[in-house]
């Protein structure tokens, strides 16, 4: 039962009976205590169910790191519902930190082809409404499909979609609601919880094509400070800031207008009035980081695991004295617990919702549609360390699309090359039927295709920048395709930041090799076009995805290069349409092994050059094929000449890593 504030003065006095008669003696009121709970999810990316649409199967049970499963909102709902039952629903705040409406074929259909699902309400909004979130935040992927799709999603939510630093260019005011105030009853007392939402400014770069002229992203730290203060003045007892950004990075390169991509630490340390920061965006499992806040007390930063693999459970101890609400910051290091969805069963009420179940099943039928027949199996497993047909399929479609678009333009005779990235190490086109799920599993991002004009010198800079992805080896060392964190030579860390697979690019249409025994900036060898060295002033049209063109990954030149074409054609759909039109995927029609890795200086033979790899066709590289036991396999080698002085007849394996 709620303790009436009007009776506080009466309760603060005690009556004692003495020999002199009744005497009222006032005693100091003893504060009462109770706990406010804040439950959070982040970076759900369309995972309502524990289902991998690309593999057409459930995610296998796993307790290790980034593979934790089962996962999904149907299990997060179990944790949330049980917590409300155990602690009292009135004392629990439930929030989500963004990146909700992109990431699976379910969310793609909901945003791009909703008629296939037969439901006017986005399934993510429906799931959030059924769970009963108090607030949600804008993530960078909420912009992928454009502002109008985001607006529709926001209108479908029962809870507000926050975004204090998401600015409507026309009005200069936040496009989204910057804050919300919810009143909870904790230990019988009214507690006002103010919630601010801010997001990474990187969206202004990554989704420039859909945001330019409509939406700008301002400083999230300044916005959090402004609105947290406003909430305090409005009577907030506790302030929670949702930050769609990770912990600050050392030596970070600003992403936009001098602002960092990740700034959760700065929000916690610089925004006055903040008690709790929920971070996200970086897909980390980081339940508790305690920092010194700007208001003289500690601040907790808590990040749930991505894809609804966990719910962050933060219990904030409160004390009540009259109308004052106090927070016990002394115990802040014990506030947070990560509660994993792998440890609970599905909530049947959410899982069996007829609208969600129907959308899920229709998505499964969609991704299992056959679009073409492949003449052979093609795997992306080694695409980060060797040129593969499956990656060339992407490059071929991109280049063909751009070439067709540039006919009858001034760029019609300019050579077209294409950048491609190994988004997935598990993507596979089977021999025989290729389904939508196979192509979607290869190209997992909702990027659009564009084309920019670059010079030969800029292309070399671009390739050298991409080659930073590899850890430097010793000359002649065998190449290990595993990430650097596992002792391999990929996903190098530079200035404290890992270069993920999606930020490594290969380029089709020119030939080159990469010697990863050399220092960064000196690795690209034998860069040529049609057998001749590429000269600095030579012009190329690069088919490029919008993320990269707009500055994603920090690649040089392309974000400022002349745009030859930007048709906003979705790359994944173009791959599907291309395969469907042809009905046949045959590497013989598009695969050109135009690059390879080495640790011994090998490169391509050019016109008039008798050294190098013979005939413009690579016959090997300095990598190895791992055996089942993980030992290096140096068998199946043959001779290939080298461009290095005094080095010929080097034994190299036929296959890559």
Radius of gyration: 28 Å
Helix count equals 16
Distance between the termini: 67 Å
Q: Would you tell me the overall average pLDDT?
A: 89
Main sheet summary: 7 strands, mixed
From the helix content, strand content and strand pairing, which structural class follows?
Answer: alpha/beta
Q: What is the 3D form?
A: globular
Percent of residues in helices: 10-25%
**Number of E-state strands:** 37
Approximately how much beta-strand content do the residues carry? 25-35%
Low-confidence stretches: 1-28, 614-657
Describe this structure in words.
With 657 residues, this protein is α/β, with parallel strands linked by helices. Helices cover 22% and strands 27% of the residues. Strands 3, 4, 5, 6, 15, 16 and 17 form a seven-stranded mixed sheet that branches. It starts with 7 loop residues before the first helix and ends with a strand.
Question: What is this structure's SSE topology?
Answer:
Blueprint: H1 8-11, E1 13-18, E2 21-26, E3 32-41, H2 73-87, E4 92-96, H3 105-112, H4 123-131, E5 135-137, H5 147-156, E6 161-162, E7 166-168, E8 179-186, E9 189-199, H6 203-206, H7 208-211, E10 215-217, H8 220-233, E11 238-244, H9 264-270, E12 276-278, E13 286-292, E14 298-303, E15 310-321, E16 324-327, E17 336-340, H10 348-351, H11 354-367, E18 370-374, E19 378-379, H12 389-405, E20 416-420, E21 428-429, E22 432-435, H13 436-442, E23 448-455, H14 456-466, E24 493-494, E25 497-498, E26 506-508, E27 511-515, E28 524-529, E29 532-533, E30 539-545, H15 546-549, E31 563-570, H16 571-582, E32 584-585, E33 595-598, E34 625-626, E35 632-633, E36 637-640, E37 650-653
Parallel strand pairs: 3-4, 4-5, 5-6, 9-11, 11-12, 12-14, 18-32, 20-30, 27-33
Antiparallel strand pairs: 1-2, 3-15, 7-10, 8-9, 13-14, 15-16, 15-17, 18-22, 19-21, 20-26, 23-30, 23-31, 24-25, 27-28, 28-29, 34-35, 36-37
Helix pairs in contact: 8-9, 12-16
